[in-house]
Amino acid sequence: MLYHLLYPLQDSVPAFNVFRYITFRSAGAALTALLLCLLLGPWAIRTLRRLSIGQSIREEGPQSHQGKAGTPTMGGLLILVAVLVPTFLWARLDNAYVWVASLSMLAFGAVGFADDYLKVVKRHNKGLSARAKILLQCGVSLAVAWALIRLPIEPSLTFPFFKNVVLDLGPFYALLVVVLVGCSNAVNLTDGLDGLAIGATLVVAATYAIFTYIAGHRVVAEYLQVASVPGVGEVAVFCTALVGASLGFLWWNSHPAEVFMGDVGSLAIGGAIGTVALLAKQEAILVLVGGLFVLEALSVIVQVGSFKLRGKRVFRMAPLHHHFELAGWKEPQIIVRFWILAILFALLSLSTLKLR
Fold first, then answer.
1. For the chain, how long is the longest CA-to-CA vector?
2. Average pLDDT over residues 121-145
3. CA 54 to CA 71: how far, in whole Å?
4. Which value, to the nearest 10 degrees, does the dihedral of the CA atoms of residues 8, 13, 14, 20 take?
5. How far apart are CA 266 and CA 274, in angstroms?
6. Which of 116, 212, 248, 310 holds its CA 20 to 30 A away from the CA of 348?
7. Contact (CB, 8 A) for 194 and 258
8. Above 70 in pLDDT, residue 123?
9. Which residues, 6+ apart, have CB-to-CB distance to 353 below 8 Å?
């Protein structure tokens, strides 16, 4: 919005020319999101406590988590506000890519809100049934696919380390919406320790801010031989808003957490990350950028598959962070070490910009 209000005044006030630069507006979005989280955090936590919106803890989980019962949840609403408000404030509102990313995040957040609401009302940790949740996620994903088909995005798939390998998917490109369902659930599974998921989100969002900026810059994209998507650079503003919101929410969500994001936060974040990956034509590398989320999701798949096929468990407990908890690692140790893994995955993914 600021771009449309202030940039046209550049002839009268030359300083307003700075609003033409995505980098400047991205920095503004990150700072605004951070401040919103820090300022609104105490009010949000008090409100959630007053409404008795507390987290219920599953009995089969690590017993050390029972002390967290009653901690305010649904803090993801704060994340949504802290991402979407700065995005609309600093991004160009005539950019379709920004709207797709924002509406996708809002829609996935709505699914998570419904799940959290049922948990709070029924006072147990069941929420939506697995089938209902997947169906709603698929519905949102199909809506995103419909939007992608109408955007000037080539229906192809590129691969990290192999820049000359391009797979033309044609009408089957819409099948990549499974990325959205998988990503939203992977973030949801990672959100099991104080600050774990939001810290990893910060790293992934910052990485995709770089990828979207490069994809939207024709000269840089051609130099690095990556897919060029004119206009998608504006999504970097959305990504940096998510970076700022993650940093601000981490202030309240760090161990011991004063508030949890809930499904309204984790599903929204996962859907947003998956959508940005599709918009920037960096779908395949999402497996590497979000490597920590992938490991957490795979641990659940392996655990369930092994138990059904062999009657044996591979891990002490899934997702993976619970395995290390039961192995004797302290919660802060797991969180920081997993953050380090997330950073390593991000650095490796960025290296693919120069490596074939």
1. 74
2. 85
3. 5
4. -30
5. 12
6. 248
7. no
8. no
9. 214, 224, 226
Q: Given a cut of 60, is residue 197 above it in pLDDT?
A: yes
pLDDT at 208 over 80: yes
Nearest to 249 by CA among 208, 197, 288: 197
pLDDT, tens digit (0-9, with 9 covering 90-100), for 275-325:
999 999 998 899 999 999 999 999 999 999 998 888 889 999 989 999 999
What are the start-end ranges of the H helices in 227-330? 235-253, 262-279, 286-289, 291-310, 320-326
What is the average per-residue pLDDT within 338-354?
A: 94
- Please tell me the predicted confidence (pLDDT) of residue 57: 61
CB-facing half-sphere around the CA of 105: CA atoms within 13 A: 26
Strand, coil or helix: 189: helix
Q: Which pLDDT belongs to residue 165?
A: 79
Contact 237, 91 (CB under 8 A): yes
**d(C-alpha 43, C-alpha 48), whole Å:** 9
DSSP state of 65: G
Which of helix, strand or coil describes residue 100? helix
pLDDT of 162 above 60: yes
Whole-number CA gyration radius for the chain? 20
123 within 8 A of 56, measured Cβ to Cβ: yes
Coil, strand or helix at 186: helix
Three-class SS of residue 72?
strand
The full 3-state SS of 205-233, as one line of letters, equals HHHHHHHHHHHHCHHHHHHHCCCCCCCHH
Q: From CA 208, how far away is CA 16, in angstroms rounded?
A: 27
Preceding omega of 152 cis (within 30 degrees of 0)? no
Distance between CA 248 and CA 32 in Å, rounded? Answer: 10
